[in-house]
Every structure is written in C-alpha cells, then in structure tokens.
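From the methods appendix. Each design record in this collection lists the tokenized structure first, followed by the designed amino acid sequence. Records were kept in a plain field format so they could be parsed without special tools. The example shown here is representative of the layout used throughout.

RECORD:
FOLD TOKENS (332 positions):
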C-alpha cells in the first residue's frame, strides 16, 4: 500500500467527523483538521500538505491561494457545490487544480419547494401570530400550487430536481437556462427570461453566481414580474439585489420571499450571533417584513449531503494526487 497522503481540511465541522474518519481510513489519508475557515490568518496550517479541502465560506481569493502555493499546495477540493469563493484564474496562474463537490441535489431541491409552500401558505405570518396566541384567519389565506405558474431559473442538477418535485403538484412550470435539457422538456416549458419573469407566480433561483448572473434579480427585472410574485432563493445571495428586493416587498409588488442565501451572509450564517445584536442590517429588515422566510444557508444540510460532500472532497484530493485526475475538477 502507498504511504498516507497529507492533506489539510479547513472549516472542518464536528458533524462531518464521522465521514472524515471513515474516508481518512478508506483512502489512506493523514488529515490535519482545522476548525477555522481558510483565510490569510490560518493559511499556514496547510504546511506539509499537497492538497487542502475547504467549504464555500472559506476565503480562496488570490492572496490566500498565493500563500498556499508557497507552502506547496497543488490541489484544492471544495466540499461545497458553489465555488464563487475560489479565484479560478489565480489558481490556474499558480498551477493549482481545483474541484467542487457534487452531492445529492434533493437536499436543496426539497428545501426550495418547502420554502415555496411556506411562502405560498403564509406560514411565517401564521407562526409569528401563534407565538402570541393569535390563531385568527384573516391575512393568512394561501394559494394552491395547482393553480400557479412556477418559474425555475437554472435547470442544472438542482433546478431539474425542483422541476421533478414540482411536477407532482400539477402546477404549470416554466424554465430558463442558457443550456436546455431534454429531461426538463418533458415536465416544463423553456421560455426566455422576460417571459418567465412576466408569467410566473413563484420564481425560484438555481443558477451559479457568475458575472452574468450577479444581481439578475434587480429593480428592472422585478418591474417585469407579476404583482404578487413570490421569490425563492436557495442558490447564492448575490443573484439578488437585496435593496431592490426589500423595496419590492415593501411596495407589495413581491408578496413574499423564501431566502436561504443572502448578499453579505459571509461571517453571519453558520455562526451564533445571539450576543452580537444586529448581525446584518438587511437580514434584520427582511425578517421584519411580512411573509418572508429567512434561513441561514442550510438547504444543503442533510445527513446524505454532508457525507457526500466530505466523500467528494477527499476522493477528489486522493484522485488528483494518486491518479492525476479527479471527476469533479473545475475546468475553465
Ligand atoms: N443553499 C445551499 O445550501 C446550496 C447548496 C448547493 C448549491 N447551491 C447553489 O445552487 C447552485 C446550483 O447548483 P447545481 O448543482 O444545480 O448547479 P449546476 O451547475 O448543475 O446547474 C446550474 C445551471 O445554471 C445554468 N446557468 C449558468 N449560468 C446561467 C445564466 N447566465 N443564465 C441561465 N442559466 C445559467 C447552467 O447552464 C446550469 O444548467 C450552485 O451554483 C450553488 O450556488 C446552494
């Protein structure tokens, strides 16, 4: 058997430990666990490792990658699906190879549908009332999915699974993507962006954050939507111009929102801020508005997905180093 590979796992959480321990043995790895997110302050922890595994909330910007390269790190395997936190151009320049994680799309797809149902049935409004012993009906009348049109933006692994989940509700499903999938065509109708915006009662976002998709939901695109539209975002916060969303909610153009991700969430989500007061002004405003469900980037968080994420990250590092190629490598 070849000798153990030395790697560093940043942002290692206790709930990942059982999967890490299993894979460490199976893949013959020697893992240094670092609780902190990768960043300039902790980058030196990677000393002696050829590869590192990180999460989507780690700082993998050019200056940090340069430090990693100086330490001899050649491979970065994210345990997250989104990789907008990694400067891919800098990685390429430094000769580093990068991979992301592929894991069950059901975790996020199920969550997106749950948020859509919660917003549609005004569940947050009802729950807030119930806390004060108010079980009255006025103001919490909902709508039935069967009578609605749902617009799915991004029909990759998660978007496609959302469409499959939604097909059981009998609603009309519109889809928008730059690449169209045959599988989707049997359950949804591909339309251009303006048609999706103007005809959907619920819009759900499932595209990656790129320069083209940043603020794809903004003042102008909101103006094209139906009055009373509901917005679900389980993809990336920066897809939405949050100020425009807040204006839309205040003016009642937008009747509700389900938001698992938010601009400026880094350093806020996945952390306990009970003793800090307001952790983020926009989150505080959104939580105060009627019919808005805010969750802290937890759509991925299932037992299956956590195991898949660790497995994918560690298998990629092992394959990069031992076989010279990893199935989840990001090439651009
Ligand atoms: N909330 C969470 O916990 C969580 C977890 C996993 C993933 N995500 C987010 O969900 C996103 C989608 O994940 P996925 O696995 O389905 O990715 P994917 O790569 O399988 O699908 C993304 C789709 O978006 C499309 N797309 C890209 N740019 C586009 C554009 N400019 N216009 C229209 N369509 C465009 C692609 O063609 C692709 O079909 C991820 O990028 C990530 O940001 C969030």
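DESIGN:
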């Amino acid at each position: 058997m070849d000798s153990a590979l030395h790697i560093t796992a940043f942002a290692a959480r206790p709930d990942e430990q059982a999967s890490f321990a299993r894979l460490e043995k199976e893949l013959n790895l020697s893992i240094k666990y670092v609780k902190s997110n990768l960043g300039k302050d902790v980058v030196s922890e990677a000393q002696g490792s050829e590869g590192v595994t990180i999460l989507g909330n780690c700082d993998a910007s050019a200056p940090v990658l340069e430090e990693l390269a100086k330490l001899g790190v050649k491979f970065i395997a994210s345990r997250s699906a989104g990789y907008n936190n990694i400067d891919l151009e800098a990685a390429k320049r430094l000769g580093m190879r990068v991979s992301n994680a592929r894991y069950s799309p059901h975790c996020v797809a199920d969550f997106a549908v749950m948020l859509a149902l919660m917003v549609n049935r005004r569940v947050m409004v009802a729950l807030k009332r119930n806390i004060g012993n108010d079980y009255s009906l006025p103001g919490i009348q909902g709508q039935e999915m069967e009578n609605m049109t749902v617009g799915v933006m991004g029909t990759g692994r998660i978007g496609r699974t959302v469409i499959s989940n939604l097909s059981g509700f009998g609603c009309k499903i519109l889809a928008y993507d730059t690449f169209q999938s045959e599988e989707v065509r049997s359950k949804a109708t591909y339309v251009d962006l303006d048609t999706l915006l103007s005809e959907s009662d619920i819009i759900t976002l499932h595209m990656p954050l790129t320069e083209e998709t940043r603020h794809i939901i903004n003042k102008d695109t909101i103006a094209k939507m139906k009055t009373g539209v509901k917005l679900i975002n389980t993809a990336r916060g920066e897809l939405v111009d949050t100020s425009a969303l807040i204006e839309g909610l205040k003016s009642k153009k937008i009747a509700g929102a389900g938001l698992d991700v938010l601009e400026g969430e880094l350093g806020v989500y996945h952390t306990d801020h009970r003793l800090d007061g307001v952790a983020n002004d926009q989150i505080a405003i959104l939580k105060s508005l009627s019919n808005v469900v805010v969750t802290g980037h937890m759509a991925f968080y299932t037992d299956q997905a956590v195991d898949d994420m660790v497995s994918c990250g560690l298998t990629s590092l092992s394959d990069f180093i031992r076989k010279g190629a990893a199935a989840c490598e990001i090439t651009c």
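APPENDIX NOTE: The chain has twelve helices and twelve strands.
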